[in-house]
Specification:
about 120 residues, 2 helices, alpha+beta
Length: about 120
């Protein structure tokens, strides 16, 4: 996967994930969420990575959600109204734009088998 909003730096088993939107104070976007989620899943099977550190480029770690984008800034599919029963399988690709972006990243970090700082 090609990353546009983050970058990876691997040194001696430590993967540093850098939020890389310094002109926007590393404000969180749907694209960044997808890239972070992919990262935390991918490192599980990467023996070269022993631990993950997340940091931000420039003067801010992360200013929060980037509210400047068009449409639903959280990337939610507002056409869907799943019931609690529909949410039983959160890995279902149909639900990928139902769960909030921050929640998806948080769950990926929780499921990550490597220590995350």
């Amino acid at each position: 996967m090609e990353y546009k909003t983050i970058r990876h730096e691997l040194d001696d088993g430590i993967l540093t994930v850098v939020l890389d939107r310094p002109d926007n104070l590393n404000a969180f976007t749907v694209e960044m969420a997808d890239e972070l989620e992919h990262t935390f899943v991918a490192v599980n099977d990467d023996d070269a990575v022993r631990a993950v550190i997340v940091t931000g480029e420039g003067r801010a770690f992360c200013a929060g959600m980037d509210l400047s984008s068009q449409g639903n800034v959280f990337g939610l599919d507002e056409s869907k109204s799943p019931s609690l029963a529909d949410m039983a399988d959160l890995d279902d690709p149909e639900l990928s734009r139902v769960r909030d972006t921050g929640g998806r990243v948080t769950l990926a970090i929780y499921a990550c088998r490597k220590p995350v700082i």
